[in-house]
Specification:
Length: 67
């Protein structure tokens, strides 16, 4: 995957704390390039996946916000 294809983010929203959660760059289908993430981001991604239904909602693909 090339960086140009990542104009979306896979968002895991907190079920317990509104406005909190995790977001990872992804393609329009929600595929995250794990090799392109830092070790810390990769660990956060696996944590977020494990916490779906407990602390986090099902992930959604959203357009990347420009800052």
């Amino acid at each position: 995957m090339d960086a140009a294809s990542f104009h979306h983010q896979l968002c895991f929203r907190s079920l317990l704390q509104p406005g909190r959660g995790y977001a990872f760059p992804c393609d329009p289908e929600g595929h995250v390039d794990l090799d392109g993430l830092s070790e810390a981001a990769r660990n956060n991604y696996f944590y977020a996946r494990a916490m779906v239904g407990r602390e986090l909602a099902l992930p959604r693909v959203e357009p990347e916000e420009l800052h």
